[in-house]
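go over this record:
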Amino acid sequence: MPTKDTTEIEFTVCDTDAETLQSVQNLSGQVADIVPAERLEFVTRAEGNSTQALLIAIRTPAKDEHTIEIAKPFRVGRVLDVILSNYKMHAGGGDAEISIGGWLLDTAYNTLLSPDGEVVKLTEKETAILRYLNGQQDDVTKDELLQAVWEYAEDVETHTLETHIYRLRQKIEDDPANPQIVVTTEKGYRLKV
């Protein structure tokens, strides 16, 4: 899948509280392997602006700009979650939301919205499995899925995939023992939607 140019995605994190801002900046190193430090700016804004929220301004390659407000009090990690999900959304080819049957997969937030409105929190690997299976016309072999999601070499002995499929089914299937969404086939796996 082609990815977008992320060299121009920039984030400006603004708050009136310099101490809170410093806490966020200190933790930003935890996402530096994904979001380059030069794409993050931390600015203390004037007291005249609202003090009830931290602001994150996001500028994309298309020169679009939007601002996200995070109401106080908040976990500092929440700020990093917002930055990461927006970075991934703009870098990931634009398909942050994927329709899978009556379900809606949000790849930016790793959630699945059920047809009856229930939000199911997924791991990154569970999201990657669903995203990959959704993009395939035919059944997907175990080796193909291991390579696509974990970048494993062929013929590696591991139960990683089976464990993730089991946990995914526990979250989304009405009867995990008789799956109707992520089904096992003679060849491997596929989405039945």
